[in-house]
Amino acid sequence: MTRILFIEDNDDLRSAIMDYLLLEGYEVIEATDGNVGLELALKHKPDLIICDIIMKETNGYEVRKQLSNHSETSLIPFIFLTALADVVDIRKGMALGADDYLTKPISPEVLRNAIHTRIEKAKEYNDFMKKRMDDLREKIMRILPHEMLTPLNGILGFASIIKQDAGVRTSAEISEMASYIEVSGTRLLTLINNYLAYIAEVSKKYVSASKTVFDIKQMLTDITTSVARKYSRQKELELNLENTALQLEESDFEFIIRELSDNAFKFSSPGSQVIVQTEIVDTMYRISITDLGRGFPMAQDEILDELGVFNQFNRDKMEQQGSGMGLITSLLIIQRNKGKLKIKRNSIGSTVQLELPLL
Q: Each residue of 165-203: pLDDT tens digit?
């Protein structure tokens, strides 16, 4: 049975709509104000929430805002019910993530259709996410063992050679094999760290309220310079940065920038430029990382949401290192922080474009 939470401080209206919803066969939980509604939403996890806007103490906007900060309630279909019909009010409600906006007085038919539409859309989304998770499990079983065994075999192979032939190998040969072991070990460590980061991200139960404001320009400079140094390509890094302040965990920001800039260097040739530039667009801080590498096989300006974990581009044509997990983990972190991530295919290479809300 579909469970609906109805938050309304007008006793007569609440009673009338409650009776109608019960007659329609829904399980209904009533709340007389916003504070009670928040408690009941977190406790019962309803299938749909209908909420008045103008209420004493905690209004409907605040209810929606608070629920969006909890992963277990942020995606519950939410309908505002109010006498406010101004375009500004409607846009404000939609900006907070409301799925629909019904004005009083409301006919039973309009209410019934709105509820049915939102419940069906939620079901479609849940079915889609279940398929995505099934695909993810299948890809983990198929690809992750290969990605881990490849560097591990390199480590064990060269270690075995050193152990057996140490007496006849020159110091230069041993040093070269030790370098291969180090590269393989670093690759394996990166894969494990990205896997742990992904598991931590998908396991988060809430949006962190403890956020740090920091010097974005300096962090971008430090992180991208460190990555360029890793590939011995410091002279090929071009920075055009505009400073600002963001509400974002420092560790989140570092993970995202390190992953995106590392991909730019990894999949472009030595001698080619990697350009990192920023700009303020409306209420967003846009960071663009452009390389002159092989590019992504997708349409121009495609949103990354369509990509799946472990998808590697052109894998049928070329072998690539890495599972793609770091890229998808970056996407999840960005989405958690109300941002966007896009990939733009250029005539040569690609531009990864990250947008985060300004402070």
A: 888 888 899 999 999 999 899 888 888 887 877 777 766
Which pLDDT does position 317 carry in this prediction? 39
Residues in CB range of 144: below 8 A, 6 or more apart: 195, 310, 323
Is the separation of the CB atoms in 277 and 288 below 8 Å?
Answer: yes
Measured CA to CA, the distance from residue 236 to residue 264 in angstroms comes to 11
Alpha-carbon distance 78 to 101, whole Å?
9
CA-closest candidate to residue 161, choices 174, 175, 148: 174
Minimal CA–CA distance to 17: which of 62, 63, 48? 48
- Residue 144 parent element (H or E): helix 108-165
**Which residues are 341's β-sheet partners?**
354
Q: Are 69 and 40 in contact (CB under 8 A)?
A: no
Q: Which domains does the chain have, with CATH numbers?
A: 3-106 (3.40.50.2300), 208-359 (3.30.565.10)
Q: Which two tokens stand for residue 31?
A: 């709340």
Mean pLDDT across the stretch 268-291?
Answer: 93
3-class DSSP assignment, residue 77: coil
CA distance 304 to 53: 34
pLDDT value at position 10? 87
Beta-carbon count within 10 A of 227 CB: 24
Residue 106: partners with Cβ closer than 8 Å, 6 or more residues away: 81
* Angle in degrees, CA 290, 295, 298, rounded to 5: 115
Q: How far apart (Å, rounded) are the C-alpha atoms in residues 105 and 300?
A: 46
- Say how far apart CA 187 and CA 205 lie, in whole Å: 30
Q: For the sheet with 27-31, list strands across it.
A: 27-31, 3-7, 48-52, 78-82, 100-103
